[in-house]
Amino acid sequence: MDKQKKHYKLVVRGGYGLGNFGDDALMIEIYNFFIKWGFSNNEIAFNCYYDDYLYNLIPNVNLIDIDDKNFSFDNYIYGGGTQFYSFNNNSFDFSKKIKILLKYFIKTFKPRNYKVFGLGLGLGPFLDPLKEFDTRTNLIKADGLWLRDPKSLDYCKKWKNKNSNTGTDICNIIQFDINKKKDNRIGLILRDWKDEKSEDYYKSVIELIKYFIDNKIEFDPIIFSDRKDLLWEKKLVELGIEYLKWNPLDNNPYDSFIKKLNNYSLIITSRFHGAIFSALLDIPFITIAIEPKLKMISELYKNGSFSWKAPYDLFQILKQISQIKENHYNFKKSIISIRKQNNSDAIKMFDELLKKLK
Fold this sequence. Notes:
Number of helices: 12
Low-confidence stretches: none
Shape: globular
Largest sheet: 7 strands, parallel
Helix content: 40-55%
Distance between the termini: 31 Å
Number of strands: 13
Structural class: alpha/beta
């Protein structure tokens, strides 16, 4: 006998459960918002990568494994992050083409009794045109899409998606009460990365670390995922350098980790949500532009941040650090101004979603 399907008012899909601080933060903030607005725990589920540690972040949360199809819902929400992208071209896969075409016709013409949304969603890049078409297929009849950035919105305009809107990152809904004076210390958020320029990336960041050590500049390497950033952990151990790491199994991990991030006067980051949380904490930042969205977020905060671009010249980032230190007040002032606007955009985005829910 088949197991009866569990029904939820809201099912939110995302990359939660992979031990990455940024995705875990998205899950927590989405959950907090809906609970605040009167939804019960029993009405909300997360379609994600099942892992027991998520219960330490949100006790009694309803989890549906990413491969589980035995559930139903009124509203299906793609909840933030870059859920659709391709860094490789596999468009020669004929069987995959057939499957995607079938899915396209089903999603286009088959009636449905639920609504689909994308909230604070990032799209691309798409090096594989087949993956881009598959993404368009998934979102073709969405009842509302709020895109995280202009490039993602451009994709939806290209696909002629009529329900696409300017949005922002989900975590911009957060309003911290920031009173603590920052330490004169640099946070260095590191991410494992592999592309044709990754050798330059690792070599240059290690050169920067050694410069900090030789010149007695206080800093902490920071790891957002002990599952995805194993190479950087190995390199830091070999260098004999202690580092801060997101551990979702800690006691009260989310709040305590954010308090640690709040200690820094400058953050250098190769992770997108490293930049987002820097801004939320009114901290000027420098992105290490290993992928387009890191350059994009720096451009958004252009008077409060810099972007360190390939080939990652040491002189360039040292000049950027010096400029921020010399003009810290003005950089911080710019961060605060843009952060407040992003918070207003996030509130508007969530409010518009609430009005459209089934």
